[in-house]
Specification:
Blueprint: H1 2-21, E1 25-29, E2 33-35, E3 40-46, E4 51-54, E5 61-76, E6 79-92, E7 96-100, E8 104-107, E9 110-113, E10 117-122, H2 134-141, E11 142-148, E12 159-167, E13 172-180, E14 187-192, E15 199-204, E16 207-221, E17 225-229, E18 233-245, E19 251-261, E20 265-269, E21 286-294, E22 298-299, E23 305-315, E24 331-333, E25 337-345, E26 348-361, E27 365-369, E28 373-378, E29 383-388, E30 392-396, E31 406-408, E32 411-415, H3 447-475, H4 477-498, H5 503-522, H6 531-540, H7 545-560, H8 568-588
Parallel strand pairs: 2-10, 22-30
Antiparallel strand pairs: 1-3, 3-6, 4-8, 5-6, 7-10, 8-9, 11-12, 12-16, 13-18, 14-16, 15-16, 17-20, 18-19, 21-23, 23-26, 24-26, 25-26, 27-30, 28-29, 31-32
Helix pairs in contact: 4-5, 5-7, 5-8, 6-7, 7-8
Signal peptide: 1-20
Protein name: Protein BatD
Transmembrane segments: 448-466
């Protein structure tokens, strides 16, 4: 019997060891390649029961579902098969090759890890439509559109793309965030910031819709041919109506998160014509005015004058250099200072581009500044245009004469002259001065002396008065608390305005503003912030009943917002209502 027991123990440990060595812990994904607007299912499956399952961080993804656990026990011909699965639904946040790192689990004291899995995330793709899917219903009521102002511009000609989010009347959007932004790799681009999102009434496919302009971007194509504008992808929290109704006959809504993308737009960029293209063309495209100016035309040797070269108009002002002037060698020219006053709006760049040269003549004479020109392509006329500067003559009246020659109005070449005698070379320098002796004034017993002597003594009573008022201000505990609460109320109401569109942060900031306003006006503490207590105190202060009701309704809106979604329109209405109610209460209190 002892031998049989010993054999059974050996068989048990052997089978346990073999069983432990057969642990399989794997990662399975629903697809290895997906669009940024699609979701990915990830299952971590183990064939033995374990403890302490630890999922990876899912870097680059957002967990939109899970973890879901499923256990399977199957008996096949007397052989028991066990499987446990931990499932997650992931939404990619960026494009590229993303890695799902190792998950861990402990079985019989041993730690097992899954192999990492790589997933390729591409741009948004077309998702099959299912009319019974709530997500599909939401996408039927929300559309992201990219509107392009020109589909066939010239290279370096401005056009714009405007992204609009259209929402059906019965659908409510509480929040959105960008998942993927277009890169505009073949364009010079600049975004026009939206200071505040406004809601407009419009149409989509002939149906009435509301829409919000999310982004405006000005583009200048840098390549010719067919270029693609990559789509903008958003994750949108939306509430859509269902076919179910409540006891009052109103349609019930369902909250869901969807990913939508604007379609890819293709534009055909035309090359500039080669016929009639000037040799000195540097890439300027637009409609410009060219000018060359000097701040003075007459001066002495050693003095400086400013020579400015400027281009003003509308076009790709930031994308081409200014022409450089050619000046006589007897003029000392310094590096130019650039001054750009360029603004960018939906129509493109416009403004002034300017370079100013500091020029110092060394010798007496007359210096013509040769004409030079600027060429540009005007897309309005489809032709190259040239503008030439005016003739400018600078006269240096006093100074030494260049022994090698002097520039005259006749041209750039110097005329041969004889060497100037040494005794007349510096005649232009003045040797006599008109200096006057400075009048001496005694300081002792002067006005300054008496002011500095008795002035500090006169400031002592003033300093005592200021100190007394500061001490009284510091000892006013109640007043300081009221002023501090009033300051915080204004601060938090300002914070609420900045968070319009972010439901959670907006209502937290507004609730704090309302509470601090009550602390300032009613001199109460946070523990007394019940609606019944607030109503009683406001009635005791003879506040109008309608104003009290509106204030309490604002507090209730802040409470309801924690559990129900609110649209941007509702948040804007609550903010305007808070400003109006606080202003009314100030007058009545």
């Amino acid at each position: 019997m002892k031998k049989i027991a010993y054999i059974l123990v050996l068989i048990f440990f052997a089978s346990t060891t073999v069983f432990a060595q057969d642990v399989q812990f794997d990662t399975k994904v629903s697809k290895k390649k997906l669009g940024i607007n699609e979701r990915l299912r990830v299952d971590f499956t183990v064939n033995q029961d374990g403890d302490g399952f630890r999922p990876p961080s899912f870097e680059g993804f957002v967990v939109v579902g899970g973890p879901n656990q499923a256990i399977s026990r199957v008996s096949n011909n007397g052989k028991l098969t066990y499987s446990k699965t931990y499932g997650y639904f992931l939404q990619p946040q960026e494009r590229g090759t993303l890695t799902i790192d190792q998950a861990e689990i402990t079985i019989n004291g041993e730690v097992y890890k899954t192999p990492p899995v790589n997933v390729v995330v591409t741009a948004a793709v077309e998702v099959p439509k299912d009319p019974n899917d709530p997500t599909f219903l939401a996408k039927e009521n929300i559309h992201l559109v990219a509107e392009v102002s020109k589909t066939s511009p010239y290279i370096n000609e401005a056009f714009n793309v405007v992204y609009k989010l259209y929402v059906a009347p019965e659908t409510s959007v509480s929040n959105w965030r960008e998942l993927d932004s277009p890169k505009f790799a073949d364009f010079w681009s600049q975004n026009i910031d939206e200071k505040q999102f406004k809601i407009y009434d419009g149409e989509y496919d002939g149906e009435p819709y509301r829409y919000v302009i999310l982004r405006r971007t000005v583009l200048y194509p840098q390549k010719t041919g067919k270029l693609e504008i990559e789509p903008l992808s958003l994750s949108v929290a939306v509430s859509v109506p269902t076919n179910r109704r409540d006891i009052f006959g109103r349609r019930l809504t369902k909250n869901t998160n969807i990913t939508i993308s604007a379609p890819t737009r293709t534009i055909n960029v035309k090359a500039l014509p080669t016929a009639g293209k000037p040799d000195d063309f540097t890439g300027a495209v637009g409609d410009f005015d060219f000018a060359v100016r000097t701040d003075k035309n007459s001066l002495d040797a050693g003095e400086a004058f400013q020579l400015s070269v400027e281009i003003q108009g509308k076009g790709n002002l930031k994308l081409f250099p200014l022409p450089e002037p050619t000046l006589p060698s007897s003029l000392e020219v310094y590096e130019p200072e650039s001054e750009d006053r360029i603004r960018t709006n939906l129509a493109g760049m416009s403004g002034l581009k300017k370079e100013t040269y500091t020029v110092v003549p060394q010798y007496k004479g007359t210096y013509p500044i040769p004409q030079f020109s600027f060429t540009f392509f005007n897309p309005n006329t489809g032709k190259y245009e040239r503008q030439t500067s005016e003739n400018i003559i600078v006269t240096v009246e006093n100074g030494p004469t260049d022994s090698a020659g002097t520039i005259t109005q006749g041209g750039d070449l110097p005329q041969q002259q004889s060497v100037v005698a040494a005794d007349t070379q510096f005649e232009y320098i003045k040797l006599k001065t008109n200096l006057q002796p400075q009048k001496k004034e005694r300081f002792f017993k002067s006005k300054s002396f008496w002011a500095l002597t008795f002035g500090p003594l006169l400031l002592i009573p003033l300093a005592m008065i200021v100190r007394k008022k500061r001490m009284a201000y510091a000892n006013d505990v109640t007043g300081n608390r009221i002023r501090k609460a009033d300051k915080l109320a204004r601060k938090f109401l300002s914070a609420a305005k900045k968070n319009l569109g972010n439901q959670k942060e907006f209502y937290i900031a507004m609730e704090r503003a309302l509470h601090n306003y009550l602390k300032a006006k009613l001199n109460i503490t946070t523990s007394e912030m019940s609606k019944d207590r607030i109503t009683k105190l406001l009635n005791e202060r003879d506040l109008e009943n309608a104003t009290t009701i509106e204030f309490i309704s604002l507090l209730e809106s802040c409470e309801f917002a924690r559990y129900t979604p609110a649209s941007s329109v509702a948040m804007q209405q609550d903010y305007d209502k808070a400003v109006r109610v606080i202003s009314t209460m100030d007058k009545q209190l």
